[in-house]
Amino acid sequence: MKADAANVVDKAADEYRGGTLSYVAEFRIPPVEKEPQMQRVLVIDDDDRIRSLLVEYLSARGMQVRSASGGLEGLALLKGEGVDLIVLDVMMPEMDGFAVLQKVRAQGNTPVIMLTARGDDIDRIVGLEMGADDYLSKPFNPRELLARIQAVLRRSAASPSEATTVLQAGPLRIDPDRRSCTLTEGETETDIELTTTEFEILRTLLANAGRVIPRERLMELARGEDYASFDRSVDVHVSHIRRKLGDDPRRPRFIKTVRGVGYTLPRNPE
Q1: How far is CA 55 from CA 86, 116, 146, 226, 238, in A?
Q2: What is the tens place of the pLDDT at every residue in 87-146?
């Protein structure tokens, strides 16, 4: 049944080109039986057609999907029950995606993928600076969104078998199993709150301390997939990490820029 449902939605996805979703209203898929430990996804978008497509498309692939037509409704759903990931539209009336993201980040580090109808880099940069884990421009192929959702969820899951060694360079310490980052100065230990992508970037730099990692390779290592983001996305993430570490971007102590190449984290930050 699940395979049949997926095939039907794949057909709908093939019709999704050029920013139209006219085919959505013309198909229905068989219900998919819920399975244990289904990934819970919340879609917040004021476009009824996109919500309809994503709910059916992601549900057909074994995800438990809730949807909201606006920011306030989405935040109300989050209060009622937790989710594993949020797909969040930027341009919405009443409360835009940036305002919703700010509320979400004030409560925790639930992974967020933002959808933007505009191709401007500024929307993407602002979203990343505010703590979004990834972005996707409209119109998009649902298969690409699914791939990004799966990649973000894999990073946030971080099974112990993948990384069990505690990483440390000077006062900076990362525990992959606990998904924790701490900074110790003197007798004061501070917990550093990082988004999923920020954590993986810093973990990758720490695991390769002393080595220069090119921008593209850094994102490949951190995401576990081919580098697909625009070039400045990694720079924005690094800038955000530096702020959280209290690092001076002009004379950074931890994450240093190697001009024209990428980044490095010293084995013994001074």
Answers
A1: 12, 18, 12, 26, 33
A2: 999 989 889 999 999 899 888 788 999 998 766 667 777 777 788 888 888 888 999 999
DSSP 239: H
The neighbour count for residue 267, using CB atoms within 10 Å, is 12
Q: Residue 85 forms beta bridges with which residues? A: 41
Nearest to 210 by CA among 270, 269, 265: 265
Torsion angles phi and psi, residue 185, rounded to 5: -120, 110
33, amino acid identity: E
Residue with tokens 């219900």: 31
Tokens 């001076």 sit on residue? 248
Greatest Cα pair distance, the chain, in angstroms, is 64
Name the CATH superfamily housing domain 2-157.
Response regulator (3.40.50.2300)
Amino acid found at 78: L
CATH class of the domain defined by 167-264: mainly alpha
End-to-end CA distance of the chain: 59
| CB-based contacts of 137-146 (< 8 A; 24+ apart in sequence) | 138/19, 138/50, 139/16, 139/17, 139/18, 139/19, 139/20, 140/115, 141/13, 141/16, 142/9, 142/13, 142/16, 142/53, 142/54, 142/57, 143/10, 143/13, 145/54, 145/87, 145/113, 146/57, 146/58, 146/61
> The pTM is what?
0.58
For the chain, where do the domains classified as CATH 3.40.50.2300 start and end?
Answer: 2-157
